[in-house]
From TrEMBL:
NCBIfam families, per database record: PRK13260.1
Organism annotation: Maribacter caenipelagi
Keyword flag Ubl conjugation: no
The keyword Oxidoreductase is annotated on this UniProt entry: yes
SUPFAM superfamilies, per database record: L-sulfolactate dehydrogenase-like
GO MF terms, alphabetically ordered: oxidoreductase activity
Keywords tagged on the record: Oxidoreductase
Protein name in the entry: 3-dehydro-L-gulonate 2-dehydrogenase
Record-linked PANTHER family: 2,3-DIKETO-L-GULONATE REDUCTASE, OXIDOREDUCTASE-RELATED
Length: 337
């Protein structure tokens, strides 16, 4: 796969113009361009620049309403329900993350449950955002059925991305994971590079486990992380997102032709509610250091805390620029016209 080097400034400029062309306001377009660029800058191409053509396709089909904004439908102290009104998943998620942060700063803990939203792209975006504001966050979303329950043959579960973020002075700890062994975005990225998965990631057309991204994407049957444990966690998160938001379940989303009208949960905790913030930081560093002190399985290998490699990738990309698929970049430029 041929690649082209693109700076973050150029990408933001191109994307902002593209989103304005497709009826987003200048302010919304600037946010959307920044978030897609930041995800790409952090090495998450699958939910950054690579996802833009799909996003525009959803806008053109009317599945993403460019003029919609999220609205609060119910308030219960530190908990709220919101309706995304089928607006941009990124813009809705930012709104709900910020509201959960506000509730946490007010009550110590805040929870916002959101229905009728669209794909939030990289879930970690909102974990980093909360951590920058000093809040611990637990965030999750449901999806279309794209993963079989353990022991099942047909897709009945979503790979329901799950985020936990913890603020830390030396670098935030951010877990951002789908509940499939590999996200479909990651498989798309490897497929573009004609690379195999390092481990089995799902089933091919003949019901055999496969490391070939294309086989798995064609079958649509991803492997749950942790096998039966990931299968159970996926179902539980779908239940929570659906019940708390009074929105669509993975089952209901699957009845639609496209992945839309999702349900999500944004929970934030303000650790400064306790008075031992310095002790908290020391405890985090103790855990990280204990893990790092263990001998590597192979010489030269290292262990990392969640989010550590993202910070390293970001720094490298800011200096050297981003290596973007030439095919994807050309597609984006063609959309701009």
């Amino acid at each position: 796969m041929s690649e082209i080097k693109v700076s973050s400034e150029e990408m933001k400029s191109v994307l902002e113009s593209l989103f304005i062309k497709h009826s987003f306001t200048k302010a919304k377009s600037a946010v959307l361009a920044r978030i897609h660029t930041e995800s790409t800058l952090d090495g998450i191409y699958s939910h950054g620049i690579n996802r833009v053509p799909v996003f525009i396709d959803y806008v053109d089909k009317g599945l993403i309403k460019t003029d919609a904004i999220a609205t609060k439908t119910a308030s219960m102290g530190s908990m709220e329900r919101w309706d995304g009104n089928l607006g941009s998943g990124i813009l809705n998620a930012i709104t709900c993350t910020d509201q959960a942060i506000h509730l946490a700063k007010t009550h110590g803990m805040g929870l916002v449950a959101l229905k009728n939203t669209n794909h939030w792209m990289r879930g970690g975006t909102y974990g980093w955002r909360a951590a920058d504001q000093g809040c611990i966050s637990i965030l999750f979303t449901n999806t279309i059925p794209n993963m079989p329950a353990w022991g099942g043959k047909e897709n009945r579960l979503g790979n329901n991305p799950f985020v936990i973020a913890i603020p830390r002075k030396e670098g935030h700890v951010v877990l951002d994971m789908a509940l499939s062994q590999f996200s479909f975005g990651k498989m798309q990225s490897l497929d573009l590079k004609n690379k195999e998965l390092p481990f089995h990631g799902g089933w091919g057309s003949n019901n055999e486990l496969s490391k070939h991204p294309r086989d798995i994407m064609d079958s649509g049957r991803a492997l749950p992380v942790g096998y039966w444990k990931g299968s159970a966690l996926s179902m539980i998160l779908d239940m929570l997102a659906t019940l708390l938001s009074a929105g669509n379940s993975t089952y209901k989303i699957g009845l639609k032709k496209n992945e839309t009208a999702l349900s999500q949960v944004f929970m934030c905790i303000d650790p400064s509610t306790f008075t031992d913030t310095e002790i908290q930081q020391n405890l985090l560093n103790e855990i990280i250091q204990f893990t790092r002190d263990g001998p590597p399985l192979q010489k030269g290998d290292s262990t990392f805390y969640p989010g550590e490699r993202t910070l390293a990738t970001r720094k490298k990309s800011e200096i050297e620029g981003m290596q973007v698929s030439n095919k994807i970049w050309e597609e984006v430029l063609q959309l701009l016209g």
